Amino acid sequence: MEYDSRRVKSGHVFVAMRGEATDGNRYIEAAVAKGATAVVTDSREAYEKLRHEHVGVGAALVERGRRALAEVSAAVMGHPERDLALSAVTGTNGKTTTAFLLEAMLRSVGRTCVLIGTIETHVGDEVRVSPHTTPESRDVLEIFADGVKAGATEAVMEMSSHALEQERVWGLPVDVAMFTNLTQDHLDYHGTMEKYFAAKARLFEGVGSTPPRIAVVNHDDEYGGLIEKAAIGCSELWTYGFKKNYGGVPEFRAENVTLQAGETSFDWKTPMGTVEMRSSLTGRVNVYNLLAASCAALARGLSLEQIAEAAGKLMPVPGRFETIANQLGFTVVVDYAHTDDALRNLISLARELVAERGARVITLFGCGGDRDKTKRPRMGRAAGEGSDLVVLTSDNPRSEDPMTIINEALVGVRETTARCIVEQDRAAAIEIAIRAAKVGDIVLIAGKGHEKVQILRDGTVPFDDVAVAAEVLREIA
C-alpha cells in the first residue's frame, strides 16, 4: 500500500489522491510501470483510463482518496490502531512539549509507547526522524504496527490543523484529546481564524471515528470555551488552567505557583485530590504544558502520586527553552517560538528571569517564507515590546527574498522603542546577539528550535542554532 509512486514495488496497491501541492493521479503511470497491481483513485478520468489502457491492473474509484488510503491501510496492516490507546494533542503552541511530557509520564510506570510528533518519532525505545508533525495515515498506521510488534500499548500524537483538515488522521480512535491554545498561525493555508479553529476542533468531534472519551481543554485560553462546545460528544470534559476565567473555574488547576529559572512548583488541585508538583521545566507556559500532560496521564490511569513523581524527573524537550551551557555569566536559550504569541510568552519568561538583577533581554528572530505574511509585523512588535535589543534575521525564507521578509517584520519592531540590528545571515546574527550580551543578560535565539536545516530558495542547507551558538560561546571563552 503506497501513496508515493517512488516507493511502489511489484505487487503494491497505489492510492492516487488529490493533494494540496500536487495530484497523485499524475503518477499512476509511474506506479504501474513499477509493478503496482491495483490502483485506488479519486479521479473518474484516471479510473476510466486505467480500465481501458491497463486491463490487468485492478482499479477502484473512490470519492475521497485520503479516506480510502486510511481505511485500506488499516485493513492491510491488521488495524494496529485498535491495539493502542491513543492520546492526541492539538493547539498552536505547546503540542510538542505536552506530547513529550505525557510519553515520559506513561513510560515512568513501565508502559511501552509510540510517540509521533514534530521533533522525532518513538517506537518503544527506538528513535526515528519525523519528516512531518503528523504524517499521512498510511505512515501513521505503519508506525503503529511497528509499535504493536514492540509491545506498545499507548500512543501519543501531535495532530496539526493541516492533518485534521486534510483527514490524515481519518479513522484513528482517540481516547484522550488535549487542546493547548489557539493564536494566529497558518492563515496562509486556512485563510481565517474561524477556519483554523474549525480544523483544530475536529479532533474533539472525531475524524472518521467516534469522539474522544475524554477532552482535556485549556480553560484559560479564549478559544477554550468553543472547544468545550465542540467536545459535546466526548464522554467527559476536563478543564485545566490557573484561575476563574471565561465564566468558570478549571477543575484541574495550578495554585500556589512558584516560578524560577530551572525550577517550577505548584499545587495541582483536582477533583481526585491535591498533589504538589515540582519540575525543572521553566516558566508559566510549561505549567500549562504540565497541566495538559498530567490530566491526560490521569485519564490514562496513572495516580496523582505517580504523575507528581514523574514530573520531578522530566527532562527539557530539545529546542524548547534549551539552554546552551557557558561560563560567561549570561544565559543563551534556543526556542522554537515562531508565532507572535509564542514569542511574547518566551520573552515574558525571560523578562521574569532577569527582573531581579536588572539585566537585559536580547531577542533574535526571523519569519518563515511562503507562510502567513500578516504575522510578520506582529512578531516584530512582540519582539520589540519585550526586548532591550532585537536582532532581526532570516528563518527558512524558502522561495521568498530574505530581506523582503525581514523588512515586513521590521515594521512591527519600529512601532516599539527597542534597538534593532538587522543581519540577514543567521549565523552572523547569532554571533552579534551573543557578543552583545553582558553578565546577567539572557539571549533568546527564537524560531528554529530543534530544526537542523535552513530552507532557502536554492535548496536546503544544514543549520543548527544550538551548534552555532555553542561555537560562538567557545570562541568568546
UniProtKB/TrEMBL annotation:
Record-linked InterPro entries: Mur-like_cat_sf, Mur_ligase_C, Mur_ligase_C_dom_sf, Mur_ligase_cen, Mur_ligase_N, MurE/MurF_N, UDP-N-AcMur-Glu-dNH2Pim_ligase
Binding site for meso-2,6-diaminopimelate: 371, 395-398, 447, 451
One Gene Ontology term, aspect cellular component: cytoplasm
Keywords in alphabetical order: ATP-binding, Cell cycle, Cell division, Cell shape, Cell wall biogenesis/degradation, Cytoplasm, Ligase, Magnesium, Nucleotide-binding, Peptidoglycan synthesis
Motif, Meso-diaminopimelate recognition motif: chain positions: 395-398
Domain Mur ligase N-terminal catalytic, first and last residues per copy: 2-73
Name of this chain's protein: UDP-N-acetylmuramoyl-L-alanyl-D-glutamate--2,6-diaminopimelate ligase
Organism: Tunturiibacter lichenicola
